[in-house]
Amino acid sequence: MRILVTGGRGLVGGPLVRRLSSAGHEATALDLPEFDVRDAAACAEALRRLRTERVAHLAAWTDVDGAEKDTKGAAAVNADGTRNVAEACRAAGVPMLYVSTDYVFDGTKNEPYLEDDSANPLSEYGRTKLEGEGHVRRLAPSWWIVRCQSIYGAGRKSFVDAILARARSGGALKVVADQRVSPSWCEDVAEALEAVILRAPPGVYHAANSGSCSWFECARATLDLAGFASVPIEPTTAAAFARPAPRPAVSSFDCSKLERATGHRMRPWRDALAAYLVSCGAKEDRQ
């Protein structure tokens, strides 16, 4: 199958392209600077030129705080760019997978979020991603929306790597303890996306490593698993950081729909974290 992956050299796009290619599919990665989803004509031309059979749209503005400062820039990519891809899919009759985010929710639910829970984004990033969801629903001839969250992995700036870098440098560690998330390894997210685009019925799905923790707990687990158990961490609050974009206080997902549809089960976040640290050699740092 010929599958086009926008954002195909990104944190999740790269692993997804590798997985699809190793499974025998013709997966093509398109990304900046040579491909820009803000260019509607380029989107349509790419689908025609590659004779695309399915599109996985991962290209996005992911700078959450930057979106608060440049709302037009974020909307041009996350909303208008997604509309361009969806319109190209409609013209070509091609199914489309769109990767969205937990930031479409306000974080006030004290249970894991289900796909049908009401969206109420707190930030410009969340609002532009939700607008992108709307374009996909209205325009793509057949679609999957997969909401992901709290992704880390090799090759891009992420929370886990920032914690390890700070520990190695001997810098002070102060981490938010009043936000709960489901930290997710990019390789596991890519595996879930592959399962959806190849096997799932159209619809909305949640994909994140199972269970939840505070960012403080994630940092502590990272240090303990990597051999930095003696490094102290000070808990703090989200308010103390005063970041431009508000974050949901609770962002755990119920991923049972994904499992029912594809047979794919997301492993616990701590198991995925341990696997990542082994894969990048971090567990040997203090051996």
- Find the CATH superfamily of the domain at 2-157 and 184-210 and 252-267: NAD(P)-binding Rossmann-like Domain
The ordered H/E elements are EHEHEHHEHEEHEEEHEEHEHHH
CATH level-3 fold name of the domain at 2-157 and 184-210 and 252-267: Rossmann fold
Total beta strands: 12
**Rg of Cα set:** 19 Å
CATH architecture verdict of the domain at 2-157 and 184-210 and 252-267: 3-Layer(aba) Sandwich
- Number of helix segments? 11
Question: Quick summary of this structure?
Answer:
This protein has about 290 residues and is α/β, with parallel strands linked by helices. The protein is built from eleven helices and twelve strands. The strands form four sheets. The protein has a six-stranded parallel β-sheet with strand order 2-1-3-4-5-10, sandwiched between helices. Strands 6-9 form a two-stranded parallel sheet. Strands 7-12 form a two-stranded parallel sheet.
Question: How does this model look, in words?
Answer:
The chain is of the alpha/beta class and 287 residues long. The chain has a domain at 2-157 and 184-210 and 252-267: NAD(P)-binding Rossmann-like Domain (Rossmann fold, 3-Layer(aba) Sandwich). It has 11 helices and 12 strands. It has helices at 13-22, 40-50, 64-69, 71-92, 124-139, 159-169, 186-199, 215-225, 238-241, 256-262, 269-279, and strands spanning 2-6, 26-30, 54-57, 96-101, 143-148, 151-152, 174-176, 180-181, 184-185, 203-206, 213-214, 234-236. The strands form 4 sheets. It has a 6-stranded parallel sheet with strand order 2-1-3-4-5-10, with helices on both faces. A two-stranded parallel ribbon has the order 6-9. Helix 1 (13-22) crosses helix 7 and helix 4 (71-92) runs parallel beside helix 5. The protein is globular, with a radius of gyration of 19 Å. The N and C termini lie far apart (44 Å). The model has no long low-confidence stretch (mean pLDDT 94).
